[in-house]
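Might I ask for a little of your time on a matter of protein folding? The record follows directly beneath this note:
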Amino acid sequence: MLHHYDKISLFSPSQYSDTGHRLYTESDIVRLQQIMSLKQLGFALEEIKEIMENRNFNPVEIIKVQLDDVKKRIRLQELLCSRLEKIYELLNSQQEVTPEQFINLIEVINMNKDKYFTQEQQEKMFEQFGLEERKRYVSEWAKITAKIRVEYEKGTSPENLDVTQLAKQWNEFVNKLTFADPEISKAAERYYRENPEIGEKFGIDEQLSDYIKKAMSHI
């Protein structure tokens, strides 16, 4: 740890012995304790370095930013807790747990959606749909996506009437899944753009996405 801190110029010893060993003074230990205190509050090492090098930093603002971040993480954990409780209840009562329920749970754990969606948007997307309704929308959306891919691979022009009609249907299901909320749509577009492997899971790669956009422009 000390080697790493030294390497990133966060914490270095004030003195060295004749044989090259690090020697830490009392002031060094005080600085290390400050670093560890900030680290325990959840600050990243680069943030700690910036704080300790800025003589004019505002401690109130720094704590507020960190507090807001912690609150966001708590809300996401509460959402995860709610989903885990539902899965637990199903398992405990020996009811069947569908793959879709496990997939929804895994997405919350692994996809770090709070980076892209606000807490309110996440609640809107994950809590206001019933499982069967969401499953039906995603299934229909996937079928339309597959039909569009067939036309794309055949080399059909995106201006073709059949393609534009499919693109229109595709967009209607996107609107249903995003509640026709432009902010959710923008966040979702960024989410899939920065995580292309997720879109590919639904059969949508960058080329097909561009093809659909071109078709949409001719509606």
